[in-house]
Amino acid sequence: MPDHQPLRTALALLALAAAWPVAAQQDASDIVVEGERYPPEQAKQISTDILGDFGVAQANAPAARWTEPICLKIVGLSDRQAAIVDARIREVAVQVRAPLAKGKCSGNAIVSFTGNGADVTSQINRRAPNRMREVPEALRNRYLTDAMPIRWWYSTGTGAADGMAPSSVGAPGVFFENSDATANALNVSGDEGAIVTHNSSLVSTQTARSIHSATVIIDASQTRGAAIETLADFAALVLLAEVKPGARSSSISVLAAFGGYDPPKGLTDWDMAFLKALYRIPLDRTAGRHRNQLVVEMSKAMSSGKGAKQP
Q1: pLDDT at position 30, please?
Q2: pTM tops 0.70, yes or no
């Protein structure tokens, strides 16, 4: 199990952020969702492009998702606005079948609204630096200084696919760089220890990557008056999936909400197709298999006009 002390420290820091006003709630009657069908080959290409934009299942890193219940905490908003954000993210989580904690729980998915994202991020990095250890150094420096609407990052880990704690033995294969089941890196070698599992599958990697915690900081002074639903949808995407911190995308994703002409106002059909596919595929596969499986699932949904319906 991961050490939750840094997360509790970060949550305490985020809770210090003053309530920050955001744009008023949109009238639901103004939102019209129409599913669009795409030719199969075009759908496959768009799916591939989206995975590249999101940084999901790229190079040798398999996709990750939540396997433990998500305990959502919204800080820095009035109770009414926090309830809107909370309800929206939960609605999306239910639609894509992500696990949600019930009752009282310790927050592991934090959305913080503030008027100075760089300052809040700097406080977290100073007092709980391990919270940002997975953010590339160049981007971390930007997070600490630059003005931007939304910052996000994760704590992820790799464990045995069957839920058993991995053990190092003398046989060749996949091994952890240390004995911690939440280690971030795997190596494959012919002369190192292997993870002991009880899965005889020929395609299983015997390991699975999971999200242990996620932090989203929304700088309301930089969101260009975006409606609270737009911010909630953006947060939902980057909370429920391990999207590359700082990632940008075209207008077919809510990641483009703060740039370009006529940006999306919320999660798009493509976003939902991705999230549903992510929570449908088996985790114990290589990055290459994940890419193929996600492309197949997403393109199938978007070329048929089914399965990508927004909540």
Answers
A1: 39
A2: yes
